[in-house]
Amino acid sequence: MAGVPGPLTRLGVLVPSSNSNAETLTASILAGQPDLGVHYSRFRLPPSLDDAVDLGVLGGAPGLLADAELQAIAFHGTSGSWTGISGDRALCSELETVCGAPATTASVAVVEALAALSATRVGLLFPGPAAIAAQIRDEYDRFGINVQAVSVPASAMSNPEIARLADADIEAMARPAFARDVDAVVCVGTNLRSGYLVPGLEDEFGIPVVDSAIATVWHLLRVARAARPIHGWGVLLAEH
Fold first, then answer.
1. For residue 178, what are the CA distances in angstroms to 108, 149, 150, 171, 207?
2. pLDDT at position 64, please?
3. Which Gene3D superfamilies does this chain map to (predicted)?
4. Yes or no: domain 109-211 corresponds to CATH 3.30.70.141
C-alpha cells in the first residue's frame, strides 16, 4: 500500500527460550532490507533432545505471532534433523493452519538449501552429542545427503554455553568437517554462532557452508516470496 511507513512484509520466527542467537543474527542479515519486518515469539524446549517439537510444545507462541497477520513463519530450531524431517514438514502444515501463512523450520530449510546447492556429500558440525549427530547422519541419508565427516565437541554443553563459544572455538570445531571431496559443510544448531564465520570459511575452503540459522532466514524469505540476493553471509544467501 503506497504511503504506508515501515515494512510491509511481516515475518514471524518461533525461538527457543534458551536461544540468544536468533534475533541478533537475523537482524544483522536483514539490516538494509527496510521492506522486511521480523517478529518473534518464544517457547520452552522439551527437556530431552529426543522429544520432537510440535504444536503442544510451542503452546501459544504461534497464535501470538498470527495476530500480526504474517506473510511467513519459521520454527528456529533444528530438532527435526534427528527426530525426523517428516515431523517438521507436518509441523509446517499445522503452523500454516494456525497462522494463515506458509511455514518452514530450520531443519527443513537446511535440506532445501542443500538441494539448491546440489550438495549431496557433506561434512557436519553439530555442537551436541555424537549419538545425536549419528541420528542426523541417518536422517540426512533418507534425503540422499551423505554425511562424510562429523565434528562434535569433546564434552556436552548447554544451549547458553553453545551461544557463548568464541569464534576461535567454533572455527576449530568446524575444521574436521571439511573433509576431502565434500560438496558443502552443514552447521546444525541455531544457537551456534557459526553464521558469522561462514564467509571466511567459504573463502578458505572453497565450498558452501550452510549454517542452520542463516538457512532459516534464506528459506523464510523464499516461502514469503520475498527472496533476494543478500551479500556478506555466504553463497547461499548471495546466489540462491
1. 22, 7, 9, 11, 9
2. 97
3. 3.40.50.12500
4. no
The cell for 237 is 544467501
Examine the pLDDT at 240 and tell me if it is beyond 60.
yes
Q: pLDDT tens digits, residue range 148-161?
A: 999 999 998 999 99
Q: How far apart are the first and last CA of the chain?
A: 28
Q: In what order do the strands lie in the sheet with 103-105?
A: 36-43, 9-16, 72-75, 103-105
- Enter the pTM of the model: 0.96
Its CATH architecture, for the domain 9-107+214-233, is 3-Layer(aba) Sandwich (3.40)
Q: Beta strands of 84-175 (E only): which ranges? A: 103-105, 121-125, 146-151
CB 237 within 8 A of CB 218: yes
**CA dihedral over 4, 8, 14, 18, signed as positive or negative:** negative
How, if at all, do strands 103-105 and 146-151 pair?
unpaired
